Amino acid sequence: MVDLQGQYAGIKDQVSAAIQGVIDTTTFINGPEVHAFQKELEAYLGVKHVIPCANGTDALQVAMMALGLKPGDEVITADFTFAATVEVIALLGLTPVLVDVDPVSFNIDVAAIERAITSKTKAIVPVHLFGLAAPMEAIMALADKHNLYVIEDNAQGIGANHANASGQKHKTGTIGHVASTSFFPSKNLGCYGDGGAVFTNDDALAHSLRGIVNHGMYERYHHDVVGVNSRLDSMQAAVLRAKLPHLDTYNAARRLAAAQYTQALSGIKQLVTPTGLCQTGMGVCAQCDCHVFHQYTLRLIGLDRDALVAHLNGLGIPCGVYYPIPLHAQKAYKDPRYNEADFAVTNQLVKEVISLPMHTELEADQIAFITSAIKDFINTHK
Question: What range defines the domain where residue 346 resides?
Fold first, then answer.
């Protein structure tokens, strides 16, 4: 699914030198590499503050802690996403409120958000799922109307652009009040272990975040707020510094691979290929910088997904199902308030979606082999 060895081969000298530099200086925690990466990522994103931390899940938790959310406060997020998004809400004693998603973009449904808002709602967590920018302009308008915080989950979307109605573009993760991201190795910008970061343009919020990630300290042994131990180590920062200059190239390679997949698989009635969904009101587009294709995810119409998975695996082709069980049906997050009728899209998607290999080293012949295997399967299962 992800060719990290192939990617490493192209940057081996830079990465090796960066890691050796950390070893030579022995500044393993909060060293110069961490501070340099922070500044470089701020410049790339066009955001005032990047606060590195240990992983993407911590990033979400720290963001919610810094906003001062209290037990019982309701936080609305998408039902169709990875569990970390809702996990941190529950861990903090907040009340997760799951809502349905859009059938085309797979991102959170703005109308569903509005229906779910109550007097207890304090925040919205849109997820830029599979690398596609969520409809942030509409979400921010809704948040302003109801005086809510917006926490962007940008774990899958780093480098994507969001265009508003006037055509202005901003990087995902820089639009809400605060955002989180993950540098897990398989991400579009991934390190060689765990890592994450929080982004914000709010100076006071950034100050709170910096204290929280470091045991609540701004001065050694002076604990001003309740914090956690969540720091990006210097070796991971060094790897990320080596990879950040290549991020746009990596994302362009993913878009090219996605376009080749779509060209080969379009026009097949049993398949719905992914698209970029422009935020400008212009509708659906096949190639757009609002999508960085962390995953290339098909919908299967009337096909046996398990049989297709077995067919592909038998040919040595990996594939994945993200996500097979909706969050509202997970044992940890079941709630009697939920009505199955409110999750019609998610309940359908979990039966239909399948993700194909997607990474920066995909070559045209590999894509041709994968897509031919899918078409062969369809032709023999009509």
Answer: 247-380
